Amino acid sequence: MLNSLLLLSSILIQTYGQAFGFLTGNIADALCTDKMTNCISFDQGACQDPYTAWAMENCRHFCGFCQVNKPPTAATTSTAATTQSATTASHVIGPITSALPCVDTRTDCDIFGKSVCTDQKYIAWANKSCRLYCRLCPANMLPPITTISPALCVDKHDDCKQYGKASCHGAYYSWANDNCRQYCGFCDGPTTVEPPCRNKIQSCYRYPGEICTSDKYKDWAEENCNQHCGFCSGGSTAGTPSGTTAANYPGK
Predict the structure, then answer these.
(1) What is the Cα–Cα distance from 211 to 213, expressed in whole angstroms?
(2) Quick check: is 95 in a domain?
(3) For residue 179, what pLDDT is reported?
(4) Is the pLDDT of residue 141 over 60?
(5) For residue 181, which of 86, 95, 143, 186 is within the disulfide window of CB 3.0 to 4.6 Å?
(6) Are residues 105 and 51 both part of a single domain?
(7) Could you tell me the sign of the dihedral formed by the alpha carbons of 230, 234, 240, 246, in that order?
(8) How many domains does the chain have?
(9) Is residue 14 part of a domain?
């Protein structure tokens, strides 16, 4: 619909002059909006092949696919500089939105793997939930990735998970880069071997199922009930067998 309107506008401008272009420019301005509210969080590469069709549908304003030139006013013709400035400004159509914060809204982004960061089926979800982990923020908001030997890409602390991903950026970046660089993804570490798929304790089935799904107990469950919770190959989440009494939550 919008493309047809713009094409018609172009034809009529050639026929009847700039007056019609000025009138239709206001209409095009109103129609030129993004379907998605976070287009600004993508870089300009999202506006080009092979994503052009997707960008036309979802981020036409951000990508500049419906620009309309308006005639300059008297004030814009005083100097060449102001004229150029006005011409550039006339191409900015639609509402201006601010960039989303460069943070993860989930604490478990790493369990989904990097594939969710590039798969078009999940890109919208990743941009909302795991922006920092997927490095989908503007370049000036991203912490740099350190290029070092994988052998040196290790955490000084063995409890980095306890601090959470929030400790990897902002005011804590320097500390995190020194103490938890692998956990925070600041470098590519050595390949890790998956731990044995077994339960350290024999009474995992007696705990409520929440120990396998709640972030509060995730680290404890991975350490003690890895197989029971299905965190490894060969594991399966199991309920409490009939005739047994459920145990209290870990640490209680």
Answers:
(1) 6
(2) no
(3) 92
(4) yes
(5) 186
(6) no
(7) negative
(8) 4
(9) yes
**In a shared domain, residues 72 and 38:** yes
pLDDT at 3 over 60: no
Q: Is 13 in the same domain as 81? A: yes
Tokens at 163, concatenated: 């601090």
Single-letter code of the amino acid located at 26 = N
Residue 94 lies in a domain: no
Q: Are 122 and 134 in contact (CB under 8 A)?
A: no
How does pLDDT run across 79-109, given as a tens digit for each residue? 434 434 433 333 333 334 445 788 888 878 8
How many angstroms separate the CA atoms of 185 and 110, rounded?
Answer: 10
Instruction: Report d(CA 35, CA 28) in Å as an integer.
Output: 15
169 found inside a domain:
yes
221 plus 238 within the same structural domain:
yes
- The range of the structural domain enclosing residue 37 comes to 2-89
Closest CA to 31 of 70, 11, 4, 71: 4
Residue 93: closest CA among 72, 52, 64: 64
Query: Which letter does DSSP use for residue 154 in this model?
Result: -
Q: What is the pLDDT of residue 235?
A: 52
For the whole model, what pTM was predicted? 0.32
Query: Is the same domain home to 201 and 250?
Result: yes
Tokens of 8: 């018609």
Average pLDDT over residues 150-171: 82
Is the model's pLDDT at 78 over the cut of 80?
Answer: no
Looking at the structure, do residues 107 and 158 belong to the same domain, yes or no?
no
